[in-house]
What we know:
This protein is an alpha/beta fold and 214 residues long. The protein is 49% helix and 9% strand. A 4-stranded parallel sheet has the order 2-1-3-4, sandwiched between helices.
Amino acid sequence: MFTLVSDSLRRTLQDGCRNLQIPCIPVLDPVLAALGSHLGVQSRGQPGRQHELDSEYFERIDAMTFALNHDDGQAVWGLHNADVVLLGVSRTSKTPTCIYLANRGVKAANIPIVPGVSLPQEVHDLDPEGPLIVGLTKEVESLVQIRRNRLRLLSEDHETDYIDPETVREEVAMARRLCAENNWPIIDVTRRSIEESAAAIMQMIEKRQQAATN
């Protein structure tokens, strides 16, 4: 079973299978024929289109590099180049959301909100018309469970404030207040997949861009 579209490669494969008396099935031919008939066009049989190195591909690569370089509060001096900056306490899916956004060509940085530690001044110094700042939060019970699992994976079983429900509740409340005081939108990711969180953020970015052009 093959999905080759290059005529020369198809002929070579089919000739080889014929010599070996092996069945050779072009699994995409019926699909392409049906699509061609429905759309009134003929398949060009051009391989490798999904790997085309166009401008969109390089935008995604740049965004991925940016996300990795600006993960977990790194390189805060470059935040002004971001499309979005995500804030949140530990284990609110900041990094995976940034990586997903990067795969959509969005330059995303993330900054952890840590009790007793001020946000980098660079966050407060960002131009109001610059990067969108979004807070990520999660229900306390879910957050505690995820953190327990994280510690278990690290073979850290002793009780700490990191997984104490009351401490985590205060931590989440503090993060919400911080976002509210600065008018930063908040997304509760408790029951959202990474894709759903990223989609919500991209909608925010799009609305912001539309408002700026009106």
